[in-house]
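Hey team,

Sharing the Dipeptidyl aminopeptidase run so nobody has to redo it. Sequence (721 residues) first:
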Amino acid sequence: MALSAIATLALTRYPIWPSSYFSSPFSHNITRFLVNRHTPKQSWKTMASASSTHDKVTAPYGSWKSPITADVVSGAEKRLGGTAVDELGRLFWLESRPAESGRSVLVKAPEKPGDEPVDITPKEFSVRTVTQEYGGGAFKIVGDTVIFSNYKDQRLYKQLIESRDSFPLPLTPDYGGPLVSYADGEFDSHFNRYVTVREDGREDHLNSTTTIVSIDLNDQNIQEPEVLIGGNDFYAFPRLDPKGGRIAWIEWGHPNMPWDKSELWVGYFSENGHICKRICVAGGDPALVESPTEPKWSSKGELLFITDRRSGFWNIYKWIESDNKVLPVYSLDAEFSRPLWVFGLNSYQLLQSHEQKSLIACTYRQNGRSSFGILDDVHSTLSLLDLPFTDINNIISGLHCLYIEGASAVHPLSIAKVTLDDHKSKVIGFEIIWSSSPDSSKYKSYYSLPELVEFPTEVPGQNAYAYFYPPTNPIYQASQEEKPPLLLRSHGGPTAETRGVLNLTYQYWTSRGWAVVDVNYGGSTGYGREYRERLLGSWGIVDVNDCCSCATFLVNKGKVDGERLCIVGGSAGGYTTLAALAFRETFKAGASLYGIADLTLMRAETHKFESHYLDNLVGNEDDYFQRSPINFVNKFSCPILLLQGLEDKVVPPNQARKIYHALTEKGLPVALVEFEGEQHGFRKAETIKFALEQQMMFFARLVGHFKVADEITPIRIDNFD
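Structure output:
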């Protein structure tokens, strides 16, 4: 449920329905499409002329023309799957390409200015793991070799980086299909082996076995990996002491998610490489609820990690091995990490200064913004440094520099090379090396900048947060009497955080005259454990109430039109969307992308990682029934668009079909589009484009009261067309 994109990707097998189909007697359609790639040309000369005279064209909200088309959105935004630096200091990154059906490619940064990046991954391969469905940690660079997970068969392969004739060679057995997957690996130089998390679904795909295993790199023959650590439900972050004697890892078990309660362990290797002794460093005290994460060994053999003990905020700590004690390195009411939805998080990096001080480059979230700083763990001082990014994810060390993944309201997700002075006290260089949308700056005059909104919830004295994006277009304005329609986005997870950064999907809406608001309802991360736990036992209540309260707040402030409120969400956000439409009357229409309609069915059919997630979020059996929108179809009263991938294992397609058939029978305007080849979260450019355009058309036709400027062939809407 973690993925939460509003618009995403798919390829299907039938052409778009012709306009004559709208008068067809056939109904109860579940539509499948081969996406039309044609985009009509638009004349920008007239618009540019109007802009140059400073006389804006007056036109209804929603009808404005914009160069930020669905093609721009679907084709521009690449996804980042991790970064790495080899022993020579060369930067590598993993990018997912919508234009190549979402294929993930490992890329080497250019060595000279003006050179092009070099693809490392052969066209026959895609670097991606589906461990815990959401993956992450899909590759590791070791010397002149990369070890990676191949998406199609989920086997691990090794490949020489420099040799163009080097073809990837398998390291793990062939089980006849993607039954076993691997993630978050580390090279063990002491025993010449690869240590990694393995998820084994050979016996039971829905209840796979997760362990930490080792793969012998000495043996030229492919062998079954050896289990080093097992017995619990989940494992992450196997991290090896550089001296070769110890391994740290995180583990947790049902019904907890890793951000609810987890444990940090250290194991000691025997002479033959087995674990001969283990110690629970954090999370083992039943009187102390905490969720340790991101363990990391220093070059001196000290273990640092992040946990949220006592304060409820993820802060950096250090383990004192001699006394088996845990001490805070620095305390702040801020989040120095984020929930472990994907493997491979790297929120801080250990450094050495010119004076050989022990320093930590770190980032934290506070009040809806990321800060970057250098922490002196000896003196417990944190020096903040200025960066153009307001959102920072991962940090890795290069040669005399750092590589930081970040974004801002005007920067799309990017990798920046950050150079510090010798004392690590000042940024002396900042250079964008990679951008998810390298051409996005040409649309800067159309950008709507997010405004952080704090609004009252239904609980007296309790507030929640959102990012509001007002309609923005240098060419157009609306009449003073009109208020814009609102698209409210409910993020996925639900344990996740929306961030106020450049998102071309939002700009697609705002540049056409929509207002967009992205809500961090109670249960979101970034605001500490107490805020995160507002949702425990209250999913379908707190999130729904907060989304409705936010929309009402904006109406009362005169920001939006109360008669044109729409809600959209993906995955868990799709559930919040459906629940808001079933149990409240705030919104006039909604779109659910791979959303949940039946909580009981979700619990029974979803994958292992989230199979008990709902236990803490929902409650007893009656709560499951009472909060499932499918059981209260009679309460729906407005149009709904359903978009679903047919290969979704997190929220199976029958969820969307079930709600579709029920709403069709009730007589409400409804449409269901199913995308072949798409999973949980769309990845293909053609699907992203199609889904985005159809949401725009659906809302425009049913609640917008305006004509969309783009030439888009609408899908058939049952009980409407």
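The two ends are 32 Å apart (CA to CA).

Ping me if you want the raw files.
A.
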